Amino acid sequence: MFIQTEATPNPATLKFLPGKVVMENGTAEFRSEEEALAGSPLAARLFAIPGVTGVYFGYDFITVSKEAQEWQHLKPAILGSIMEHFMSGQPIMSGAGRAEQTDAEDEFFDEGDEAIVATIKELLETRVRPAVAQDGGDITFRGFKDGTVFLNMKGACAGCPSSTATLRHGVQNLLRHFVPEVEAVESV
């Protein structure tokens, strides 16, 4: 098994490509060892490595976030854990694990804005999310209120120094162009 690695715009996050499907449907993010133990044998293995602070599963990639340690010290242990997991035949997610919460029940917007929100979601799905996934992250819709779109940043995007620029210059400009009602974009 050959696992490729790619740098992300977030220096604290590295993208691992195992050459296999990681999550057939949805995504999963783990920000603590407790979440990982409850949801994913692979995430639990990765959190067992000192210095790992976050794990995100996409369709065909895994992003791992770290504390202050250097990648040259962490990367071999992470590669070994990913390889061991795939060779073991264990599932990525445990029975209690959860794939991406669509957060539909937590979304907020006025009923009169349904058409605007549908357009925003379509633009995010077709134009933004594929580009962000290439960098090892994800952006999902959370709400729309008073001209402001609220987005949730995951994976490599969470805590990335360039995420503000991505939101302001990329996503905000795109949404404003296609949806004049959008005045601003904020991360939640």
How would you characterize this protein structure?
It is a single chain. With 188 residues, the protein is of the alpha+beta class. The protein contains five helices and eight strands. The strands form two sheets. The protein has a five-stranded antiparallel β-sheet, with helices on one face. Strands 6-7-8 form a three-stranded mixed β-sheet. A hairpin with a 4-residue loop joins β4 and β5. The chain starts with a strand and ends with a strand. Mean pLDDT is 87; it is low at 97-102.
Descriptive keywords:
elongated; 8 strands; 5 helices; 3-stranded mixed beta sheet; 5-stranded antiparallel beta sheet; 188 residues; single chain; alpha+beta
The rough form would be described as elongated
Helix proportion range? 25-40%
Calculate the terminal CA-CA distance, rounded to whole Å: 38 Å
Rg over CA atoms: 17 Å
Total beta-strand segments? 8
Strand order of the largest sheet: 1-2-5-4-3
Note the beta-strand portion: 15-25%
Strand and helix map with partners:
Layout: E1 4-7, E2 13-17, E3 28-30, H1 33-39, H2 41-47, E4 52-57, E5 62-66, H3 71-88, H4 114-134, E6 137-145, E7 148-155, H5 163-178, E8 184-187
Parallel strand pairs: 7-8
Antiparallel strand pairs: 1-2, 2-5, 3-4, 4-5, 6-7
Helix pairs in contact: 1-2, 2-3, 4-5
What can be said about this structure in brief?
Helices cover 37% and strands 23% of the residues. With 188 residues, it is α+β, with helices and mostly antiparallel strands.
